């Protein structure tokens, strides 16, 4: 966010803020105040006509016609809404100061009219952007100062000083108000981003969401998904809470103990992993507790084990050993130039399969040198000429497995003979990595869709184009769960 004029540097975020968060409120305020001014000037026209005040009638009728035309124009052309607010504010204020017919108006009515006009002005300032309000406040206050100086018989310096200070004070508070609104919008965007990630994470998960009423010590089921292996209906879910056990204690009591522990430690959230026994099955589950008006409990059912089951850990270990052995064999064969390109291709595919399997297990974060990582990554791609342009030597904390998969997939889809790899810092001092060349971008985008959640976790932003691929890394990665 620009600290001087308060606009988001990302045009998409700025457009989203204007459309979804501001435009409807701003338009409704503009329409309401325009109708208010229309009613006021209709009354003025009727009153001046009744009093046979030709000068006042002409002025008020002209202003009434202008307000009607402006309201219709802005209503039909919403893109001019901000400009319409500024012009409305200036035209009404200047009219009341310079052209208002005050014949027959006493001081009390004039004061009341001035207060009403100032309130309407400030409402329009608040509903607009900071830059719009700043322009309006400064220009109108300068106009009032100059009008007072040239039209007044005597000079009251305290009023001039106060008016000058008001420009500064109102601008300052208008700045803080708009900054707070925009900061709140950024927080909302961040929350929404995490909600989207969590929804995608949970889409294939088996889980149950409960709420606990401390008044009557009762659990209520709020949501179920993919729990058909355990129960299908809410009634069966309540039976599960009464029949399932953990260390010979029924689930209701186990969850209640977790809630008490959570509340005694004054934590904002609580997470734990434990095993559940239910109908000759052992289920590995994760529990998360969130405090609101009532404790909300998320139960994730991660894995289901039967009493007679295959030892998947042994199978996975053997699989990993076979993959590593095949890679070592290919490394030896790779020493013969006649077979180099063919066997490098097979080697890359084996490594890719191995990494894809690992991504389904724990995501471990590791601090690495990005430049060294990229230099090692090109070793299996001797058929491409790489040109490195390092404008910084950054260290990043990332998931090495995921990053290896992403880089390997990019290199697998290179269509040009020469590739430039560039690392640098953005204006916000974040680490940027660019690949410049020619790529099979459709395959890369399909791969990105397949691993959309890891992409969201690993990169703050990314741009995938035919001739340039760019990634921006966040300062740190927050992983909500240990596994996908």
Oligomer type: single chain
Shape: extended
Helix-and-strand structural type: alpha+beta
By DSSP, the count of extended strands is: 14
Bin the helical content.
Answer: 55-70%
Strand content: 15-25%
Q: What is the number of helical segments per DSSP (H or I, 4+ residues)?
A: 14
Strand order of the largest sheet: 2-1-7-6-5
End-to-end CA span: 33 Å
Number of domains: 4
> Low-confidence parts lasting 5 or more residues at pLDDT below 50?
480-484
Rg: 34 Å
Helix-strand string: HHHHHHEEHEEHEEEHHEHEEHEEHHEE
Whole-number mean pLDDT: 78
Largest sheet: 5 strands, antiparallel
Organism: Paramecium pentaurelia
Protein name: Transmembrane protein
Transmembrane segments: 27-45, 57-75, 81-99, 120-143, 155-173
Keywords: Membrane, Transmembrane, Transmembrane helix
Write the layout of secondary structure elements.
Blueprint: H1 11-50, H2 54-76, H3 81-99, H4 107-127, H5 130-151, H6 157-202, E1 206-213, E2 218-225, H7 234-243, E3 245-246, E4 249-250, H8 251-264, E5 269-278, E6 281-290, E7 296-306, H9 312-333, H10 340-359, E8 365-369, H11 370-377, E9 385-390, E10 395-399, H12 400-412, E11 418-425, E12 431-436, H13 441-450, H14 452-458, E13 461-464, E14 468-472
Explain this structure.
By secondary structure, the chain is of the alpha+beta class. It folds into 4 domains: 11-197, no CATH class; 206-306; 310-360; 362-484, 2-Layer Sandwich (Heat Shock Protein 90), CATH 3.30.565.10. The chain is built from 14 helices and 14 strands. The longest helix has 46 residues, at 157-202. The radius of gyration is 34 Å and the shape is extended. Residues 480-484 have low confidence and may be disordered.
